[in-house]
Amino acid sequence: MRLATVLTTTNAYTPTRSAHAREPRITGVGGGTNSGEFDLSARLGVNLVQCRAVTDSISDDMTRKGALYARRRAGSRLARVLTLLAIAALAACGALPPRNPPRVDVVVVELERIDGPQAFFGITLQLTNDGDDDIVINAMQGALAIEDESIAQAALVSAPVRVPAHGATRAQLRAQTGMDAILRAIAAAMRRGATLVAPGGRPTLRYSITGSATLNGGYRLPFSRAGELG
């Protein structure tokens, strides 16, 4: 009987809550709270706003840096282009022809000698300067042909050659070739009838020379002359 009484008393006992005790409340994302309560949704909103502000700031900074880098690259590329243009302009100015280029005339082209299987030609040029300044010729070269047969390349014997203002001077070119080239030229002359001459006369061979004179400063003055071998 005592055990039943105890169990009955225990089951009937209901603990009471103090009037001053407060039960903690945590609201959901969409719920509201009273003052002083923990608001999870508000804190999440603040964090999202702050995160977005930081992200926008970083994005703007990267955009500014990218634009600055692009401008620097464009400026560097433009500087390289301008430098190349300046170098090309200076090179072109250095190769400009003189105001009064010299005149090149052929005085004589002659067979100087034959030494074994080699033949040597001499070309004498007259250089005339009508300008107010001296002209310096650093090199001269030309292709010599006889009866339209290519013979040899001629080159300046002594360089440089100075042509005085309002004056003239002579330059000597020399060419060397084999006798086979001479025989081809003679055969070409025979085909055109150059060897058929009147008694007491002598056959003539025609020549042509095309080349250039390199002046001081790099300008190349072309020339071309034709005539008969002396």
- CATH architecture level-2 label of the largest domain: Sandwich
Query: In what range is the share of β-strand residues?
Result: 25-35%
- Helix/strand-derived class? alpha+beta
Q: Element order, helices and strands?
A: HHEEEEEEHEE
Return Rg in Å.
Answer: 52 Å
Mean pLDDT: 76
Which segments are poorly predicted (pLDDT under 50) over 5 or more consecutive residues? Answer: 1-21, 26-38
The total domain count is: 2
Annotation, overall tally of beta strands:
8
CATH topology-level name of the largest domain: Immunoglobulin-like
Features:
Immunoglobulin-like, 230 residues, 34% strand, single chain, elongated, eight-stranded antiparallel β-sheet, 34% helix, 2 domains, 8 strands, disordered N terminus, alpha+beta
Could you give a quick summary of the protein structure above?
The chain is of the alpha+beta class and 230 residues long. It is 34% helix and 34% strand.
Tell me the layout of helices and strands.
Elements: H1 2-12, H2 40-94, E1 103-115, E2 118-129, E3 135-146, E4 149-156, E5 161-163, E6 167-178, H3 179-191, E7 206-215, E8 220-228
Antiparallel strand pairs: 1-2, 2-6, 3-4, 3-5, 3-7, 4-6, 7-8
Question: What would you note in describing this structure?
Answer:
Residues 1-21 and 26-38 have low confidence and may be disordered. The protein has helices at residues 2-12, 40-94, 179-191, and strands spanning 103-115, 118-129, 135-146, 149-156, 161-163, 167-178, 206-215, 220-228. Strands 1, 2, 3, 4, 5, 6, 7 and 8 form an eight-stranded antiparallel β-sheet that branches. β3 (135-146) and β4 (149-156) form a beta hairpin. The longest helix is centred in the N-terminal third of the chain and has 55 residues, at 40-94. The chain folds into two domains: 38-94; 103-228, Immunoglobulin-like. By secondary structure, it is of the alpha+beta class. It contains three helices and eight strands; from the N terminus they run ααββββββαββ.
